[in-house]
Amino acid sequence: MSRKIIHIDADCFYAAIEMRDDPSLRDIPIAIGGPVDRRSVLATANYAARVYGVRSAMPTSVAKRLCPSLLVIPGNMAKYREASQQMQAIFREFTHIIEPLSLDEAYLDVTDSEHFQGSATRIAEKIRARIFEEVGITVSAGVATNKFIAKVQTYYTVCQCLT
Description:
By secondary structure, the protein is α+β, with helices and mostly antiparallel strands. It has helices at residues 13-21, 47-50, 60-66, 77-92, 120-134, 147-162, and strands spanning 5-10, 30-33, 42-45, 71-73, 98-102, 105-109, 139-144. Residues 159-163 have low confidence and may be disordered. Strand 2 and strand 3 form a beta hairpin. The longest helix has 16 residues, at 77-92.
């Protein structure tokens, strides 16, 4: 029997939490990171900022040059950890074989899950819906027989959503 692996990754996680909590941020370019006047980098940027070429791990000063209207928010790790814990609780309802990669990303082995007659695709759909309903953010999911392909599937899904 082949493995059933789901890769879950939150979309612009820190920025998504900020936009969830302050809807006025949804349509403007925002990033989470340190101030421009210090040597700091961005943790993430929302899709409105990414249009300008703003990316994670980019120096804040470079991001501001690319997008002068970029709003850089210092972030709130306690809030992000809480959202992560909510996501992890949802994952545990479907499997106990979870390999977290970061606060917002994990692999789930659902090979032996009886949910949805063992359909990994339907489990992934349900997890995505539950996270949206309960945490208030979107996540992407990839399903495959191994971690590498599941992760590739996740990013393929994200790219399809952006086109």
